Amino acid sequence: MTLVQTQFRPASAHRVHSTVADTMDAAGPQVWEDMTVEVALAVMAAARTGHLVVCDDDGLCTGLVTRARLTVVRDSSGSTDRIRLRDIVDVIAPFASPLTTRTEAERAMRRRRLGALPVVDEQGNALGVLALSR
Question: Where do the CBS domain residues begin and end (predicted)?
């Protein structure tokens, strides 16, 4: 797991910059790595969301997958109905700490061309998702 940046600040510190925790959305639907691409797309459609938080068997966040990425995989010539989320190499994503400043997270997202970034605690539990404004 790769954190974008972790900064620990005392609770009494004056907040000049907002943190990811101040601006993140709820994690939303969480799915497991062994879910197929087709089922993940159905979950996404039912939840009316553009992304899903992907978790391992222990419930720890391993990444985030978008509708655009799943659609590309489903529509590819080598696609089968057996492709699982764990088979998609780029499902594993960088993560943000809730204490990362929003500016730092947005800069990292733009550099990596990410539309959304999972926010996780020290144990790897998904706390939320930071999405770039379009």
Answer: 24-82
| Predicted TM-score (pTM) of this structure | 0.75
Q: How big, in percent rounded to 5, are the helix, strand and coil portions of the chain?
A: 30, 30, 40
Q: For the domain 2-6+18-131, what is the CATH code? A: 3.10.580.10
17: CB partners within 8 A, 6+ apart: 101, 102, 103
Amino acid at 12: S
Query: What is the tens place of the pLDDT at every residue in 56-77?
Result: 989 899 888 889 889 999 998 8
Give the residue from 21, 17, 25, 18 showing the smallest Cα distance to 115: 25
Q: Measured between alpha carbons, how far is 31 from 112 in angstroms, rounded to an integer?
A: 23
Domain ranges of the chain: 2-6+18-131
Whether the CB-CB separation of 48 and 132 falls below 8 Å is answered with no
CB 119 within 8 A of CB 96: yes
